[in-house]
């Protein structure tokens, strides 16, 4: 998708998340398959957020209960931390990258590989995040005497420490980025230079903050320079398929 085509889609789904956040609901399974095109022939294209089968009040979230789809889940969900609407923003960031590049950023159905892919591009979550995870010790080795208290396990360490894990790591990425800033070059390579690409990458970096408390909110997304002034007013909250 061209950057100008991604922008209204991202705006509409962000508005949907803003509406959900205002009533304290987490969608919990935001992915391309749960975004429905309403009318492909309209310009800009109209989309809706669908499938609320895993949606729940943020106040009812139980840390350690896994929900969502590996490949789009926020780190706090994978690690068993308390999570809220910010987890949907992470998922939307990955969806936006996929729309803009035509390629999923962290394509994996395996939790270890998915976390490994994230860490290889973005680094690992900060220690204060890892300290609170129910499942942190499944994937990381702790050492309170080191400056960085947690170290991501090798595949052999992971297999040896998690019962019943016969995991063989698979390289499923189409592209491997060493940092999120490299998205701009990838977009230029796949589509040529377009206005707004650098601003898009700037926004994605805020959507994919590893610490959920540092992640951008829906209202902040629509005020980001990637969106022209007043753009959010063009997206009334009709972009949610109500579950009832």
Short description:
With 244 residues, the chain is mainly α. It has ten helices and six strands. The strands form three sheets. It has a two-stranded antiparallel sheet with strand order 1-4.
Determine the strand fraction and express it as a percent band: 5-15%
N-to-C SSE string, H for helix and E for strand: HEEEEHHHHHEEHHHH
- Lateral strand order in the biggest sheet: 1-4
CATH architecture: Orthogonal Bundle
Q: What is the percent of helical residues? A: 25-40%
Mean pLDDT: 91
The largest sheet is:
2 strands, antiparallel
Commentary on this structure:
The chain is mainly alpha-helical and 244 residues long. The two termini are 32 Å apart. Helix 1 packs antiparallel against helix 3 (86-101) and helix 8 packs across helix 9 (197-207). The radius of gyration is 18 Å and the shape is globular. Helix content is 38%, strand content 8%. The strands form 3 sheets. A two-stranded antiparallel sheet has the order 1-4. A two-stranded antiparallel sheet has the order 2-3. Strands 5-6 form a two-stranded antiparallel ribbon. It has helices at 3-22, 75-78, 86-101, 111-122, 127-130, 136-139, 155-161, 183-191, 197-207, 218-222, and strands spanning 25-26, 35-39, 46-49, 56-57, 140-142, 150-152. The longest helix is centred in the first third of the chain and has 20 residues, at 3-22. The chain has one domain (3-234): Transferase(Phosphotransferase), domain 1. It has 10 helices and 6 strands; from the N terminus they run H-E-E-E-E-H-H-H-H-H-E-E-H-H-H-H.
